Amino acid sequence: MNSEKQSTVMKTKGISLSLIASALLFLCIGCDDDEGISTDPKPDGAALNTWFDDAVDKRIQHFTIDASTGGNFTGEKGTKLEFSSNAFSTLTDDVVTGNIDVELVEIYDRATMLLTKKPTNGKKNDGSINTLISGGEFYVNATQGDKQLKLKTGFTIVAPTDNTGEINQDMKLFNGEIACEGNDCDLFWNEQEDRGIDVGEIQVTGGFKTAYFVFQTKFGWTNIDRWYNDPRPKTTIYVDVPDGFDNSNCAIYIAYDGEPAALASFDKYDKDKALFTEHYGLIPVGLKVHFILVSIIDGEIQYAIQSATIVENHVEVIDVIHSITEEQLVDLIDELP
């Protein structure tokens, strides 16, 4: 091969290799070197579930009482628990004596409902889900050392009404039911139809305060509630979230304007339509609400809050999310009407 021809071939090969290298570089921008998988930050469903769990754990208050004598104590938000003497036994029905540890979580506001993933979704006898207006959500449990205890008799929960800003004679007792798919768990509230709530007075520093009184016979989650009722025509609503977000890595809530003790969650996701929805179609047309999205990306909370007035077959499109601290998110939710 003469030198001129060899030079031409070398140049041609150089151009081809350069084009191939450029194409490969273009294809691999934002990709993993080994697998060719995008390394762009993605919503982290496991981190979101951990965030919800941690929010509950941080709010557990511990109290010590004598099992034989019983006792009363008051939580940080004014919730009072009253236990009679000899109210506890072991799981094998042995008598319990000595000190025991009682755990209490008290939730009265939508921000805490969201952080702990304890929305006011109530389950009716036919399996349908509707929104509740809460007078307080509570977790109560008792242990002695590493042993779980059970109740021989019940205990009384006393919940100040000024924590939710409403006094309503129609409140009922609801027990929490937790349903899980893998590591993703949701809590629904089941009405105890034969159990009403009493309204009375408790003595506090400086006078008296109105409170709800409920007698509970089991440990776990308790809610003092009434069903949300609105006479306007109802509709089903949908939420369209950004690409990459779905029910495995984000949560969608709806806050009703004027109801600070209610927060509904979208517990269904239509994979074919890629839309969040609720399966009961009982959202009033004309209702003013705020949609809330939360997720975790690279360890940071991501959120969106959008105001809307519900129309028939409402589709809420969320296309912009932002980073935020937990404290800032709580402040924003507390400021909602």
Give the structure's gist in a few sentences:
With 337 residues, this protein is an alpha+beta fold. Helices cover 16% and strands 45% of the residues.
Describe the structure.
It is a single chain. The chain is globular and about 60 Å long. The longest helix has 26 residues. The protein has a 5-stranded mixed barrel with strand order 6-7-14-10-11. It has a 5-stranded antiparallel sheet with strand order 2-3-9-13-12, with no helix packed on it. Strands 18-17-22-23-25 form a 5-stranded antiparallel sheet. 16% of the residues lie in helices and 45% in strands. A hairpin with a 5-residue loop joins strand 2 and strand 3. It has 337 residues and is an alpha+beta fold. The chain has 2 domains: 183 residues, Chondroitinase Ac, Chain A, domain 3, CATH 2.60.220; 101 residues, Immunoglobulin-like (Sandwich). It is built from 4 helices and 25 strands.
